[in-house]
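Give me a protein, keeping tokens residue-aligned:
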Amino acid sequence: MTEGQAQLIAEAQRRLGPKAVVTDRQEIEPWLTDWRGRVHGAAAALLAPASTEEVAEIVRLAAEHCVPLVPQGGNTGMAAGATPPADASALLLSMRRMNRIRSLSAGDRLAIAEAGVILATLHDAAHNIGMRFPLTLGARGSCTIGGLTSTNAGGTQVLKFGTMRALVAGIEAVLPDGSIHDGLSGLKKDNRGYSLDQLLVGAEGTLGVITAVALRLVPAVAGRAVAWAGVASPARALELLRFLEARTNSVEGFELVPEDSLQLVLKHIPDTRAPLSGQHELHVLVEATTADPQHDVSAELERLLGAALEAEIIADAVLAASEAQAEAFWKLRDSISEAERAEGPTLAHDISVAVADMPKFLVDASAQVERRFPGVIATGFGHLGDGNIHFHVRAGSRAAPDWYESEGEEITRFVDDLVTAAGGSISAEHGIGQLKRAELARLASPSRIHALRAIKQALDPLGIMNPGKLVP
């Protein structure tokens, strides 16, 4: 522990009380490793403020003593953006005690939620007033609003509602000097220069600490239909999406699930079963919704899938007969990463290319990776409709205790080169964190790198906000 850390800890304990400072190693330990277990950090203390004013006090102390802070929410990120450095040079700043929903308004279609609010909690609260927060993902039971905002999370409804950036109406945050930025008014028009709110979205805690977010709500779902279809290729999957989009505006989820990913889920996740008989190269999970009680969205989706079957766009399909079956379909999709983790080492590449180019990219990139590294298994799943596929490479027969270190970097560079050559992005929704920082420095344009560094230096000249993340 450095002298500055010791002074900060002592002053925080005196000013904020014992609940705000945790130094017991056993309590801190679970929060020192990223979700996939690849990156391990160390920290002398975990700071747990309960209010924006307490966050500001901690940040002022951090600036005074030049102590770096690593903000953390649910610690469900995929790029180790909330993991502290291994040298214990930073303290963890946990936002989990700031878990109040300050307001909900159906009239304004706004919610103001503190950074530590669990996504599923916000879903339930919005539902109780006849509204919905239209962003969801597999980690909704543990991910937090602050983390989702800081990483500009996407999820499975981006096709219709956009990423977190599109759903943020304003932000409250503590800036690196300890001052408080209050942008929670939710104004639709506010043209007072640079948007600090949007600058903080996706900044991964490197420019300040998000303490609360004003979020856009939409009317609650009055009808929902979920279907599972088998298709012969990625090109057929995209053809199905375009077929549906031309005939309805109800589709808000369109997820690609390869056969081998489905088999991993059936192998490792209890109480799962395949929706269709037989095997299909690819599966598509479709969700359609309506806020109009008079609109029979299930009948509409069933009719459209029947037409797609007649047109030989799909090989088979089944419509969920109940909410329980619909959730079972989604469990198959949401459990892919968990099943991969149980199977063995996996390199997760959260990439995007133009939607029209994605089918060809999936086929070509998978073949090139497996040819270049015989024995690995390359597969892509996820949000085909917005061009964001999770392109994962499993170790397969090349698995070894040091696989990440011995081959991981080379494989990732190979994949990222393919993505860049296709005009895509090496980070679609998971952020840069630690794991992609070197690749961002290698592949991004000089102008982008210069701008990132200049913004970071201007707002955080002491470099105390989440060091070693995002900015090369």
Q: What stands out?
A: The two ends are 26 Å apart (CA to CA). The CA atoms of residues 347 and 459 lie 33 Å apart. The domain at 345-429 is CATH 3.30.70.2740 (Alpha-Beta Plaits).
